[in-house]
Design goal:
This protein is mostly beta strands. It contains no helices and 18 strands. The protein has a 6-stranded antiparallel β-sheet, with no helix packed on it. It has a 5-stranded antiparallel β-sheet with strand order 1-16-13-18-12, with no helix packed on it.
Length: 191
Amino acid sequence: MTPPAMISADSIEPQRWRNGGGQTRELFTWPADGPWRLRISRADIDADGPFSAFPGVTRWFSVLQGQGVELTLDGRRHRVLADGDALCFDGALAPGCTLIDGPTQDLNLMAIGGASTMARVTPGAPWNPAWTLCGLYTTVAGTWRSAQGPCRLASHTLAWQPAADAPGPWTFTPEPGAGGHAWWLGYTPKD
């Protein structure tokens, strides 16, 4: 069994958006060679403006820090808050984004084909990684446990690996007194 890949978001150089409204840190793409079918990134949104269109891509979006955003999709407004659930939408829609009260830091999972998920971690509760590729993104330091044993994660870390290398259930427990959020991530490609 291989240990999980550990990616520190803060060690990735940010790339400015073309519209100037924010920046992105690309944390993980799969496959490693060739065009991606899965992409995980952390974004900083500094100003209102539209998202880029990604036809054929399923997008998951969650606010990690800040008050939140309001996304307009097909004329309907969706509030995405730091203490709320992730929003899944068709990447072709390119929603308009309005900051609720200042800048936000956000987590994005984009998948082409197959099935994907972004689910809020309930601290200490088991999660069964029923996906081919699985991971955890956390804004807070803590301990991730799988069949391989415990693994300490620093804040703003993506831990990622094939589920076959670390069968479930998985749990994540933040350090005592630490505030923040964590998300389970999963993707099974369509062959």
